[in-house]
Amino acid sequence: MRSHILGRIALDQERLAQDLAHLAAVPTVEEEYDEFSNGFWKNIPLYNASGASDDRLYRDLHGAPAQPTGHVEHVPYLNEIITTVFDVERLQMARTRNLKNAVVIPHRDFVELDRGLDQYFRTHVMLEDSPLAFHSDDDTVIHMRAGEIWYLDAAAVHSAVNFGEFSRQSLCVDLAFDGAFDEKEAFADASVYTSDVSPAIHERKPFTKEREAGILALSGVIGRENFRDILFLLSKVHYTYDVHPSETYEWLVAVSKEAGDDKMVEKAERIRDFAIGARAFGERFSLTTW
Ligand SMILES: [Fe+2]
C-alpha cells in the first residue's frame, strides 16, 4: 500500500456541522462515473476547472488556478481547511464525497489523463467517522478516522465502501505537481504534516479455496438482470477476505463464462478493462444495456 496518513487536524465540530448541513441540503444528482458506484454516493465540487457548481468531472488544469464554485460560500469552514492547510497553487479540484450503504467498484483513477501518474496527488480529509466505512488500496484495507489527512494512491487499484447508514463525508483535495516533489509541498501549513500516525488497518479473514468455490457458484445465480448486483456484491468481498480487489473482475468473468452467456463475458471483460485498465477521457460504460 502506498496510501498513507499525511497529517491530522483538529476539527471544529460546531463549524463543521453547519457546513455539513448545507451539503446535505444540496440535491443529489447523477455523478460522473456513476457506473462505478451503487447506493448513496454524493460528490459536491467546491473547486474545479470551470467554477460551475454542477461540474463534477476531474480535469487537468495544467497550471491554471482551480476556480471556486457557488458552494464555497456556504461551507466557510471547509473552504478555510482547503485554503489554509493545502498549497492552493497546486490545487486541481476540491470536493466533498459522501458514501452511505454503498460501494465504489475497484478501479484506477487518472488513467485517462495526460501527466505521469505520480504527478497526481489525491488527498482525503476525513470529516466524519463512520465505523463501517473502508478504503482499499491494492493489498490493504484501511479505515480513515475523522481529522486524518490521507494520501490516497488513486493510480493503484482501489475501492471504497460504507456498509452502514452513517454518513461518511470526506473532503477530497486533488493537487498536481510538475516533476519530482516532496509531499510536504502539498501543504501551506507545514505543521499539519506528520509521518508518525499509525493507520487503522482493517483485519481480514484468510481467503480460502472454499470461499473461492462459493463465489464461483454464483454462476448459478448470475443473469443479465442481476449482472450489476453481482458486480457490486463481488466488489465487497475483498473488504472481508484477504484478496486483491482486482480479483473482483476475474470472478465476474469466470462466473459469466460458467453461466454460458457470451454477452456477459464480454461485458465483464470490458468493465474490467474500463475500471482498472485504460479508458479514454470522458468514456462511459453501461452495466445495464445489452
Ligand atoms: Fe477513485
Automatic annotation (TrEMBL):
This is L-proline cis-3-hydroxylase. It comes from the Bacteria. InterPro entries: Asp/Arg/Pro-Hydrxlase, IPNS-like_sf, Pro_3_hydrox_C, Pro_3_hydrox_C_sf. Residues 19-175 form the Aspartyl/asparaginy/proline hydroxylase domain. One of its GO terms (molecular function) is 2-oxoglutarate-dependent dioxygenase activity. SUPFAM superfamilies: Clavaminate synthase-like. Residues 187-283 form the L-proline 3-hydroxylase C-terminal domain.
